[in-house]
Amino acid sequence: MDLTEDFPDIDNFDDLTKKFSEYMKAERSSSQSTIQAYVRDIKNFSEFARKNYIDITKATRQNVLSYVMYLQRCKKAPSSITRAVAGIRMFYQYLLKEGKTKDNPAYRLKLPKCDKKLPDIMTVEEVDLLLNQPSQSTFKGKRDKAMLELMYASGMKVSELVSLCVDDVDVDLGFVKCVSLPHARIVPLGAPCIAALADYLSYARFYMIKEENEKRLFVNCSGTKITRQGFWKIIKEYAKKANIDKDITPHTLRHSFAAHLLENGADISSVQEMLGHCDISSTQNYSRLVRPRIKDVYTKTHPRA
After folding, report:
1. DSSP string, 138-174
2. Distance between CA atoms of residues 277 and 63, nearest Å
3. What span, in angstroms and rounded, lies between the C-alpha atoms of 62 and 49?
4. How far apart are CA 226 and CA 233, in angstroms?
5. Residues near 93 by beta carbon (within 8 Å), at least 6 away in sequence
6. 3-state DSSP helix/strand/coil % of the chain, to nearest 5
7. DSSP tag of 37
8. Distance between CA atoms of 78 and 67, rounded to whole angstroms?
9. Tens digits of per-residue pLDDT, 20-60?
10. Against a cut of 0.85, is the pTM above it?
């Protein structure tokens, strides 16, 4: 399939999507996973346009609506369709900026409503059980304990965790600096997390790093930067060991961090800041988890419930 036919005024479609990816990273500070999803959606739309003899540089609002209806006929989830249109809209915004089209056919396009799925969270007891699994008699165990404690204490993403440098953590003042753009922020840490980090830094990290000038806070057993996939395997290992009957992922700790803060009275704007959410509606989703819990407590404890 020759996708360059979709763009009579554009020399190379792959080159264009590459430049679009660079634009999303440099000017929109989008994550790599978001960029990859957008590019995939753009290529799918391009294929649809080619099959329907649509010049993608001159696509109309009706063309995009036809694509949305096509995705609905294919039984795509509303969330997938919403993301696809968001990617198309962003792509045309880039084309407009580059002068390669005269209109954004996806601008203010009404999208199908998405029922937001409530995130899975752990109970406080399950978190304690998970965090107490790593052995403190090995370097790896001390590292794993520090990583798990830090994830739950800060609510950071796994991509932020594995990118941390030693200088991003201050165990004396008790905070961590998350440098993920555009949501760079400072999050305070609790005593158990500080103790685990101090133990790892004092008695394990020096023996695990491969090079003395290694800046990364956490390294794998080969002494180099740990990966997201590596941490995913670690958390799965300890969840299984703890016999927790839930699908525990790194993001589960982030969800649990937010829900437990709100459940214990934290104001939503503070939680939003600690999570690095640009839009408070993302944080408000956790409130839907807390409401039934509060109602349950009320029902069980209020004398006239």
Report:
1. SHHHHHHHHHHHHHHHH---HHHHHH-BGGGEETTTT
2. 33
3. 12
4. 11
5. 104
6. 60, 5, 35
7. H
8. 13
9. 888 888 887 777 888 888 999 999 999 998 899 888 888 89
10. no
